[in-house]
Amino acid sequence: MIHSTTTFVTPSSDRVRFELFGSVLPHPAAQASLATQAAPAIDIAVVHLGASTLRTRAAQRNAQSRAARRVLRAMLPACPGRRAPRICKTALGAPYLEGGPDLRISIAHSGGWIACATAPSACVGIDIEQPRQRDWLAGAPWALHPAEIAWMRENPQQQSLQGLLHWCRKEALVKALGLGMHDSVPFPEIRFSPQGLLIEAPDRCGDVGAWNFHTRVLRSGAVMAAAWR
User: Fold this and answer.
1) Rounded mean pLDDT of 150-175?
2) Which member of 2, 110, 181, 193 lies 3.0 to 4.6 Å from 197 by CB, making a disulfide possible if both were Cys?
3) Within 13 Å of residue 164, how many CA atoms lie on the same side as its CB?
4) Cβ atoms within 10 Å of 130's Cβ, excluding its own
5) Nearest to 141 by CA among 186, 181, 192
6) What is the pLDDT of residues 167-179, one digit of tens each?
7) 3 state DSSP class of 21
8) Which GO terms describe its cellular component (predicted)?
9) Alpha carbon separation from 119 to 5, 23, 72 (Å, rounded)
10) Distance of alpha carbon 63 from alpha carbon 47, whole angstroms
């Protein structure tokens, strides 16, 4: 696995720490589930922006969105003599490149964290979530599969992290399918093992054995998950 870290100055002059986890056929230390050894490679960038000085949530989200686009553009291969591609959105809100390399892309941000993923031949989705106090069992009917609920009841000390891992993986899966929040797959119909293996999913997800997942628990307890096939 390639792991490089650099610091650069963005167009708005704020400094961003850019961590690129390249060509992810996942590292043994990461939680991963690969469909086959021939699974397509993807590139993932994870960035932490630090504390925000913006006062409103809307302003913070706009700043995160702009920063995510800058990170994504930094990941794209150089195309001398060509205009930079536009990052557009489908009617369902899924990002795509217009006038650029034939890459699938996905973007996520939460708090000060940003995650971007690109894949040359695979549909890809990424999600990142800050840790938060949440009673996952109380919210289980809309977020978790019955088997996931049962495991968490038997392992209450792991409820907080496992709930966030399940949520992140499901968000990444839905994004990889190009679905919006109002045209999504019901999360209780998606089942992951505690180790991150996709066991069950609705028919519109296709063959569960074709999906690959890469999960990382980052500093401060934030969780990042990518899904692709």
Assistant:
1) 95
2) 193
3) 19
4) 15
5) 186
6) 999 999 999 998 8
7) strand
8) cytosol
9) 20, 9, 12
10) 13
φ, ψ (nearest 5 deg) of residue 45: -120, 130
Quickly state the pLDDT bin for 36 (edges 50, 70, 90).
low
Burial class (CB in 10 A: 0-12, 13-18, 19+), 135: exposed
Token code pair at residue 41: 């490679």
Return the number of other C-beta atoms located less than 10 Å from residue 150's C-beta. 11
Q: Write the pLDDT tens digit of every residue in 122-138.
A: 899 999 999 888 899 98
The structure tokens listed for 22 are: 């390249």
Tokens standing for 68? Answer: 């995510």
DSSP 90: -
Task: Write down the residue that tokens 């569960």 correspond to.
Answer: 208
**Which has the closest alpha carbon to 174: 102, 106, 223?**
106
Cα three-residue angle 173-156-151, rounded to 5 degrees:
50
Under 8 Å between Cβ of 180 and 161: no
Taking each helix axis from N to C end, the angle separating 146-154 and 159-176, rounded to the nearest 10 degrees, works out to 160
Classify the phi-psi angles of 186: left when phi > 0, otherwise alpha if psi is within -120 to 50, otherwise beta.
beta
- Separation CA 119–CA 122 (nearest Å): 6
| Side-chain half-sphere exposure of 183, counting CA atoms within 13 A | 11
Token pair of 20 as six digits: 């690129």
Whole-Å CA distances, 165 to 21, 78, 114, 189, 200:
19, 34, 17, 16, 16
pTM: 0.82
